[in-house]
Design goal:
Structural class: alpha/beta
Distance between the termini: 38 Å
Radius of gyration: 19 Å
Order of helices and strands: EHEEEHHEHEEHEEEHEEHEEHH
Number of helices: 9
Oligomer: single chain
Length: 328
């Protein structure tokens, strides 16, 4: 059954891929994005595009929408430390305005793009949804505040909502991939070395209590991530997640890959040498961050179909080469 969805932040990396998956399912999609970090050309063909802020969502949101998928947020951890007010105003204030607009319009289904940064440094791994939440940055704190806000909205006003806490999203979906400025994610940074855009990749710490001494992280393909959002919508449509419930699910492969494993995989996939430089540890970097995604499997029926790191890197590499050829 065709439904209509508002995708906030749908000109960004994850939002654009989810919008493309919704269109592929035959749904009607409206993307709302102010293009402060997104790209107009990333809005999938077939989606209606509104250039605007989530703070003004009430201008466009009405009862014809069947739900909202909310990705519009600033997400740079370092910037959030330097400019916390920017993150509170946009991530928290913007979501408050969006929830008010949804309430006024009678739109009662929401999928929220949350983050593993809500957990901070874990007490144990794999990390479950019951783990303590102790974010170490205003970015993580702003996302946790939104999760609390959504929970209150569900209880008080009958919203059905699913918060999906991502671990390390990577890869690409055809012409849709990662473009951040500045870039801070490991896989695209290593690919920049393979492309000759930077001389070497810095490995921050090689003396962690891990098999090769470098940090271990959980990587999930962006297309697998998108499929989880569609399953969340299905769960709310079928009342598996009923009105009044706020379901929180981690999204990750449940497997960890070290920094050196990522670098070596890029070497194999690209056929390029990737020089590396060992640098001092970064403050606050946990040795291992790996998700337990059992809740997503049990409640949403979600299982990653692209768990192989080489597949993730290969899709990201294809996107990076396309961008290089296009001069982006």
């Amino acid at each position: 059954m065709t439904q209509r969805y508002l995708v906030t932040g749908g000109a960004g990396y994850v939002g654009s891929v989810v919008a493309a998956h919704l269109l592929g399912r035959g749904h009607r999609v409206t993307v709302l994005d102010d293009l402060s970090t997104g790209f107009a050309e990333a809005v999938p063909e077939g989606a209606e595009f509104i250039e605007g802020r989530i703070q003004d969502a009430a201008k466009w949101l009405d009862g014809s929408y069947d739900g909202v998928l909310h990705f519009a947020a600033f997400s740079q951890v370092g910037e959030s430390v330097a400019k916390p007010e920017k993150y509170w105003e946009n991530n928290v204030g913007g979501t408050m305005a969006l929830l008010a607009a949804m309430r006024a319009a009678g739109v009662r289904r929401l999928v929220f793009s949350s983050t593993a940064a809500t957990y901070g440094e874990p007490e144990s791994v794999p990390i479950t949804e019951s783990a303590p939440t102790a974010p170490t940055s205003p970015y993580g704190a702003s996302k946790l505040a939104v999760d609390h806000m959504i929970g209150g909205e569900c209880t008080a006003h009958g919203l059905a909502a699913v918060s999906l806490r991502y671990f390390n999203v990577a890869g690409a979906h055809g012409p849709l991939g990662e473009r951040h400025e500045p870039e801070s994610h490991l896989i695209p940074l290593v690919l920049q070395v393979a492309l000759g855009r930077r001389e070497a990749i810095s490995v921050y710490g090689d003396d962690y209590p891990t098999p090769d001494g470098t940090c271990v992280r959980d990587y999930i393909h962006v297309a697998d991530l998108a499929e989880a959002h569609l399953l969340a919508l299905d769960a709310m449509t079928a009342d598996t997640v009923p009105a009044g419930e706020h379901l929180i699910c981690n999204l990750g492969n449940g497997n960890g890959f070290s920094v050196r494993e990522v670098v070596e995989t890029v070497r194999k996939v690209t056929g390029h040498p990737v020089p590396e430089i060992t640098a001092p540890r970064r403050a606050g970097d946990p040795a291992v961050l790996v998700a337990s995604a059992e809740a997503a499997r049990e409640r949403l029926g979600w299982t990653p179909s692209r768990p192989d790191l080489a597949d993730v890197v290969a899709d990201a590499w294809a996107f990076a080469r396309r961008e290089e050829e296009n001069g982006s």
